[in-house]
Specification:
six-stranded antiparallel β-sheet, alpha+beta, 19% helix, 19 strands, 293 residues, single chain
C-alpha cells in the first residue's frame, strides 16, 4: 500500500467535485491517503469525505506528494515537504502552471505516475537565506526566489552586493531578486531577467526598476555565495522568500561595509514529478507562446 500525501488550495470551489472524484479513485486503488489538515477540513465542510487522514506534518515514508492548485500552491507544498525530497506532482487548477503541470483531465496518467512510479523526476535547486534578522520560525528556503524590496516609500534602496566575498556593485533600485532557474520564469521574468533551463544550477541576480542602465541581470554559479548589505532612507526594507514577506531594519546611509543578508544554495533539492514526454522547450511554447508571431 503506497502512502500518498495531498496538499491543496482551499479556495477552489469550482473544482470540488473533480477533487472528490480524484481522491475516491486513489482510495479505490488501495492507497493510504494523508491530506494537509486545512485542505482536508475544507473538503469536509463542503461534504467531501473519505477514509483519508488529516495532518499538519508530512508523514514519514511518503511515496508521492500531490499539489492541487496553482504554482503558488506548489511552492507551499514544497515548503510542507521540507527537506524530505519526496517527489511532488502538481495538478494545476490555477493559471500558467509552470510547476503544477498536470490537469484533472489526465486521470489515467496521474494514476500511473502516482501508483506505478511513472513520470520523470527533476531535481530543482533551492536557495537558503541566512540572516540574523529572520523572524522566528520562518522557513528560510526558496524554490523560486529571495527578493529584497523597498518598503512603502518612493525612495529607492541600495543593495551593496558581494559575490564569493568579492565586491560586485551597489544596486540602486526598487529591489534586488536572487532567483533559482526554477524561479527564472516567475518574478525574475517580470523584471526582465533571463529564462534559465530549470534543472541547471545557477543564481540569477535581477534588479527591480534599477536607477542606472548599467544595472543588468547577472547569472552566477549555483555554488556562489551572494552577500548583500541594504541601505534605505526609511531604515526598513522588505524581504520576500517565495512570496512570504517580512520587513527588517537597515541603515539609512550607504556607509556599511558588512553584509546583513547571505544567499547560498541549500543542502537539498525539491524533486518535481513531470510527465515522461515533458521537456523545457515544449513548456516554453505552451506556457509562454515561445516563438509565436
Amino acid at each position: 500500500m503506497k502512502k500518498i500525501a495531498i496538499y491543496g488550495n482551499p479556495r477552489q470551489n469550482g473544482y470540488i467535485s473533480r477533487i472528490a472524484d480524484f481522491l475516491h479513485t486513489l482510495e479505490a486503488a488501495d492507497t493510504e491517503l494523508w491530506l494537509y489538515d486545512e485542505f482536508g477540513s475544507w473538503l469536509r465542510r463542503n461534504g467531501v469525505t473519505g477514509s483519508w487522514r488529516l495532518t499538519s506534518v508530512l508523514p514519514a515514508d511518503v511515496w508521492r506528494l500531490v499539489s492541487i492548485g496553482g504554482d503558488g500552491t506548489f511552492l507551499r507544498t514544497a515548503r510542507w515537504a521540507g527537506k524530505s525530497q519526496v517527489p511532488i506532482l502538481g495538478i494545476n487548477t490555477g493559471h500558467l502552471g509552470f510547476l503544477a503541470s498536470y490537469s484533472f483531465d489526465e486521470t489515467d496518467e496521474l494514476l500511473h505516475e502516482l501508483l506505478e512510479g511513472g513520470g520523470k523526476i527533476e531535481p530543482r535547486m533551492v536557495l537558503r537565506l541566512h540572516s540574523d534578522s529572520l523572524p522566528e520560525g520562518i522557513w528560510p528556503y526558496a524554490l523560486n526566489e529571495v527578493a529584497i524590496l523597498k518598503c512603502d516609500t518612493a525612495s529607492m534602496l541600495t543593495a551593496r552586493t558581494w559575490i564569493d566575498s568579492h565586491y560586485l556593485a551597489d544596486y540602486l533600485a526598487d529591489g534586488l531578486i536572487m532567483a533559482t532557474p526554477t524561479g527564472s520564469t516567475a518574478y525574475n521574468l517580470s523584471v526582465g531577467g533571463p529564462i534559465i533551463e530549470p534543472t541547471v544550477e545557477n543564481i540569477v541576480l535581477s534588479p527591480v526598476a534599477p536607477h542606472s542602465l548599467t544595472m543588468r541581470p547577472l547569472v552566477v554559479g549555483g555554488k556562489s555565495t551572494v552577500d548583500v548589505a541594504v541601505f534605505s532612507k526609511p531604515q526598513r526594507c522588505r524581504i520576500s522568500i517565495d512570496g512570504r514577506a517580512f520587513s527588517i531594519k537597515c541603515d539609512s546611509g550607504a556607509t556599511q561595509s558588512a553584509p546583513t543578508l547571505r544567499v547560498t544554495k541549500a543542502d537539498f533539492h525539491v524533486n518535481i514529478l513531470r510527465r515522461p514526454d515533458s521537456d523545457f522547450a515544449d513548456i516554453l511554447r505552451k506556457k509562454l507562446l515561445w516563438g509565436q508571431r
